[in-house]
């Protein structure tokens, strides 16, 4: 019976504020500096918005901002990698086409 009481304590709504959504600040900062910066800036902004919403008790808004920050960070990294690959391919093509 004590295990049932323990289970109900962990599932109570009073523990909900402990589940603060992750802000992905480090990932957003990396994507802003090293990858596709326009999306990185938006991800960084949403990361900050996650912290502000959590501090105000708006966990639903914080969760939405957290998901958006993650997706924008990942998109920024993907676009950055694609841009770097295209730039390297263009440079290799340019240097190999030059007459020696």
Automatic annotation (TrEMBL):
InterPro entries assigned: CD225/Dispanin_fam (IPR007593)
Q: Which residues form the signal peptide?
A: none
Name the GO cellular-component terms: membrane
Q: Where are the transmembrane segments?
A: 24-46, 69-95
Which keywords fit this entry according to its UniProt record? Membrane, Transmembrane, Transmembrane helix
Q: What is the annotated localization of this protein?
A: Membrane
Q: Which family does it belong to?
A: Belongs to the CD225/Dispanin family.
Q: What is this protein called?
A: Synapse differentiation-inducing gene protein 1-like
